Amino acid sequence: MQADILGPDFRVETFSLPPDSEGSVVATLVTLAPARPNGRAVLHVHGFADYFFHAEQARWWAERGYTFYALDLRKYGRSLREHQTPNYVADLHEYYGEIDLAWWRITERDGHDEVVASGHSTGGLTMALWADERRPAGLVALVLNAPWFDMHGPAWLRSPAARLAIERIGSSRPLQEIPRKVSGVYGRSLHRDHGGEWDYDLSWKPIESRPVHVGWLRAIRRGHTRLHAGLGVRCPVLVLSSARSFFGDVDGEAAATHDIVLDVEQIRRWASSVGPHVTSIAIEGAIHDVLLSRPPVRAAAYDVIGRWLDAWVASPAPVGSGQEDHQGAHADDGDHHA
């Protein structure tokens, strides 16, 4: 491993995966080690047209003793190569290759017996599906940040006719682009060069997002169908979302206080489909990526995560402290606001 672009305390490793129709494929694992490890780890997966740049998120976990790992999936961010169609897969199962390898490195190579899985947006859908199918030993919790659980927009987009069209075109012309308008408001609200707070590589996370291909959307819709039928993730699950979405004429304040990417009502509707033990929390004033919201809002979100972990996941003492593990008081399931 070598130093990552996020700084010398972050380490990065790239591993090769079986080639696909476009050629060679790699994925990238970024790691931040805690000063006082508690023996646990986190594995995080980003969303669409995204990559891992959330150093604050990694440090929040590391301060609590978790070794933090984040995947840049194939054809995203650090893993994107010139010969590849950015962000494209024909089946969400393709991502299981790098998730499985990362899991092996975290548990077998690095010796972590208990791991929290984490995912944002499309990564939230992927990690829920992966956790349900793989059900790995050592998965103690699943934290989903605004997971993409359904197709938002007009009802006809969720109709049987639309689903059939996506299936047929996705099979015959998978790389056909779907026309869409992207205002760029969300991207500009994030990046510091456009009035936001965050600094990241715009060639990896463009302001205007990325093209959407029919084959990729078919993979997403198949994932939605599996989720809606009901998954059986056994560990406690936390689903975070903004309290509100906004899809009208977006101004600066709306973009800074609402989810303008996904419908949060859909997120909360389908949250209970992940498993039998789900807590859904709506964060007032949050944006789509809840942990990139304004400082007071994301502080509230981190407080929610911390209290939920204390309630549902035993809190081990730092390695070498000589203290016993303890189990926090239980929290309630269901929808809550913070």
UniProtKB/TrEMBL annotation:
Composition bias (Basic and acidic residues) maps to 323-338
The Serine aminopeptidase S33 domain extends over: 40-251
Which Pfam family name is an example for this entry? Hydrolase_4
User: Superkingdom of this entry's organism?
Assistant: Bacteria
Q: Is the keyword Hydrolase in the record?
A: yes
GO molecular function terms here? hydrolase activity
Q: Which UniProt keywords apply?
A: Hydrolase
The record's section on InterPro entries has:
AB_hydrolase_fold (IPR029058), Hydrolase_4 (IPR022742)
Q: Where is this region: Disordered?
A: 319-338
Q: What is this protein called?
A: Alpha/beta hydrolase
